[in-house]
Amino acid sequence: xxxxxxxxxxxxxxxxxxxxxxxxxxxxxxxxxxxxxxxxxxxxxxxxxxxxxxxxxxxxxxxxxxxxxxxxxxxxxxxxxxxxxxxxxxxxxxxxxxxxxxxxxxxxxxxxxxxxxxxxxxxxxxxxxxxxxxxxxxxxxxxxxxxxxxxxxxxxxxxxxxxxxxxxxxxxxxxxxxxxxxxxxxxxxxxxxxxxxxxxxxxxxxxxxxxxxxxxxxxxxxxxxxxxxxxxxxxxxxxxxxxxxxxxxxxxxxxxxxxxxxxxxxxxxxxxxxxxxxxxxxxxxxxxxxxxxxxxxxxxxxxxxxxxxxxxxxxxxxxxxxxxxxxxxxxxxxxxxxxxxxxxxxxxxxxxxxxxxxxxxxxxxxxxxxxxxxxxxxxxxxxxxxxxxxxxxxxxxxxxxxxxxxxxxxxxxxxxxxxxxxxxxxxxxxxxxxxxxxxxxxxxxxxxxxxxxxxxxxxxxxxxxxxxxxxxxxx
Length: 475
Prior knowledge:
The structure is a single chain. This protein has about 475 residues and is of the alpha+beta class. The chain has 3 domains: about 140 residues, no CATH class; about 160 residues, CATH 2.40.50.110; about 80 residues, no CATH class. It is about 65% helix and about 10% strand. Helix 2 packs parallel to helix 4, helix 3 packs antiparallel against helix 4 and helix 16 runs antiparallel to helix 17.
């Protein structure tokens, strides 16, 4: 039975390694797609590899020393089932059976005719195997402790990573944090995913109404990730509030159209690489308009991830260490009433009034003043304002009352963009009427709108996108 237990354990260990490799593959795929808990899956995969190797080793030892090897197999099987993931746990059940067989097989070993010479080595061997079992237990405890400590550190990071209360955040950043944090609180009290879906829809609507521009200027947060991909391009994420992150993509595949990865040898790359994780920074850049119900593009793929731990994709333009003195100066300049004081003093000063009275009393100046009062010239400024206020409001090709994205609201707020949108609609209509493959043209137009127009965060970028598309359709 001891040999049978060893054979079973070796087979279980081999299949356990295969299962661990599969677990590592899925964990790596999840990391590439930036899914939540991908790092935990990778950790389980490595745990499965470790304990599967130990099972193979102790399975081989079971041929010579079945009882102590069986004890070690039982310990490794239980630890592997806990720390190796679901796939590995199935193989560890088979290894557990092999360990039990090895233990019972060891009890039935017949005694030799010379116990006096064999007993001392068996005692020493038993001591060694007991010590080996203790070492294995210690290793398991250490692994569990490391994993638990990692989880605690992650929790502590999210709990303490928001900016200090004394820091005054930009209005747009504070508004986004307030909307998203409120949705996070509601989501934790939700009873099912249908309720969470309603909370997300409500949050995204509030974001689209409250965030008038995709551009972020001098926002404040703490560095969460400083990394690079396989091509050496910078990967950066900044936490602006607990469980609210703005970040670049972490792989070239996802970043094909966004271009968020930071190119080496650029000032932005050099500035970011000189900083440390957890450092408070100010940064600027642009968000991306979301699709399929998202107001802003997110890296999370699951509903819970998008609500509870949103990761907004962001193209960084600049980053610098936070300087409280600069913010204090900016705050003072914004709130300082100094420019208004001289105007008020000048308006209230009696000195200019005296010459005016003297001039009014003088007979010669009085006549021109009367003539000027009678002349219709002073009415001109009021007449200039009337055409501006009475001019018809500009309108793009779509109904601005139904604008649902930041890009559409930007178009509705700018006359040049609205006119460009109308011209594009006319060019597209003309091209569609003469196109032989209308479905392909429609797909190309939708792709341009999502990847080119909606990716712009300012007027200049969007005007350029419209001009290029109009030229393409006209040709």
